[in-house]
């Protein structure tokens, strides 16, 4: 069967499945959310992971919403947080916080509203995750019956990762790297394995989010040869190849896993829309970090010695040298939640995905 016909069949199956299971209701059929990814989704795991130098557990992180640092790498809520709020599920605890509490006896069970496994500095390649294996953490909890398998089947799974892998590819040190295409294919193979294992352990709904334009983050100024007056095109070319591969994975899922639904969120396209027409989306600056220092605010991490902070973070696309502001996260979340399904989120948006009823599947 040709690639075209396989993709067409996958899309038809998703549409049929959605039409069968979408229910007309004001509430959503998502009791819990399980989140996997990097610092874009990290809810504070790195506060407990002292082996990692990537930390955001100090001011002014969290200052705009929580009014104290939570370990999130932004001034407020992440995309995963907003999606939880749209659904009406309490924000998920970081895995390490829950794990430590269960281990020391201060709580008996793991949370029933889901768990956030995302960790700053992580990626999809094994060498990027030498001391933090999110998939293994999830598998252990399911295999040891510390997460109810019925809950897993009814839950929503979120995934966003790969920025660190691609950014690290352009660093001037480290081992010899393969060519760019082989590197991206190796990344996609790891994502495919993660998705496969999640479904084998009972997942039925998953959203894979594309990377944003990593070549546009202020931290690009630390890469040799990266331009300051425009995005780093070579880096974004790799990002787009990776994103295309993610979308192809989504198209394959209904065929590989009958009864399962996956969606692809085109975060890259959203951010490029913001950059092309900043004032329309409430931005006054789409190039520099609100919090940091040096060229574009990209040479000093927010909160570290010598940092400076803008007056209104909501007018900045970037909060710090690598991460979006809460305003950016909110705009992205709204588009993924209720956006037009053929453009920003496909084949269905997150609101429709959350409305799928899996009671009969369990």
From TrEMBL:
The alphabetical list of record keywords is: Hydrolase, Lipid degradation, Lipid metabolism
Lipid metabolism among keywords: yes
Q: Which Gene3D superfamilies match?
A: SGNH hydrolase
| SUPFAM superfamilies (alphabetical) | SGNH hydrolase (SSF52266)
Any one Pfam family here would be: Lipase_GDSL
Query: What superkingdom heads the lineage?
Result: Eukaryota
As for family, the record states:
Belongs to the 'GDSL' lipolytic enzyme family.
Q: What is this protein called?
A: GDSL esterase/lipase 6
What organism is listed for this UniProt entry? Xanthoceras sorbifolium
């Amino acid at each position: 069967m040709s690639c075209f016909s396989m993709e067409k069949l996958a899309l038809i199956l998703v549409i049929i499945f959605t039409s069968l299971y979408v229910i007309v209701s004001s509430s959503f059929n998502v009791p819990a959310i399980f989140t996997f990814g990097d610092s874009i989704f990290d809810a504070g795991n790195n506060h407990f992971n002292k082996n990692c130098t990537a930390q955001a557990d100090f001011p002014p992180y969290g200052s705009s919403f929580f009014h104290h640092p939570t370990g999130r790498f932004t001034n407020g809520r992440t995309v995963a947080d907003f999606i939880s709020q749209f659904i009406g599920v309490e924000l998920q605890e970081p895995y390490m916080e829950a794990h430590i509490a269960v281990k020391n006896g201060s709580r008996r069970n793991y949370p029933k509203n889901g768990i956030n496994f995302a960790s700053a500095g992580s990626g999809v390649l094994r060498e990027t995750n030498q001391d933090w294996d999110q998939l293994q953490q999830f598998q252990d909890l399911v295999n040891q019956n510390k997460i109810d398998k019925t809950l897993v089947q009814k839950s929503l799974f979120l995934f966003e990762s790969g920025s660190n892998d691609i950014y690290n590819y352009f660093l001037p040190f480290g081992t010899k790297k393969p060519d760019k295409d082989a590197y991206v294919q190796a990344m996609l193979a790891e994502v495919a394995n993660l998705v496969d294992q999640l479904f084998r352990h009972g997942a039925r709904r998953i959203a894979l989010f594309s990377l944003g334009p990593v070549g546009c983050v202020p931290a690009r100024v630390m890469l040799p040869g990266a331009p300051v007056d425009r995005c780093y095109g070579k880096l974004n070319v790799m990002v787009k190849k990776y994103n295309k591969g993610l979308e192809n994975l989504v198209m394959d899922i209904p065929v590989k896993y009958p009864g399962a639904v996956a969606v692809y969120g085109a975060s890259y396209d959203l951010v490029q829309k913001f950059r092309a027409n900043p004032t329309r989306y409430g931005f006054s600056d789409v190039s520099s970090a609100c919090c940091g220092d040096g060229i574009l605010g990209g040479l000093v991490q927010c909160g570290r010695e010598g940092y400076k902070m803008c007056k209104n973070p909501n007018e900045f696309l970037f909060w710090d040298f690598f991460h979006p502001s809460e305003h950016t996260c909110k705009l992205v979340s709204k588009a993924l939640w209720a956006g037009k399904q053929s453009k920003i989120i496909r084949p269905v948006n997150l609101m429709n995905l959350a409305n799928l009823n899996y009671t009969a599947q369990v």
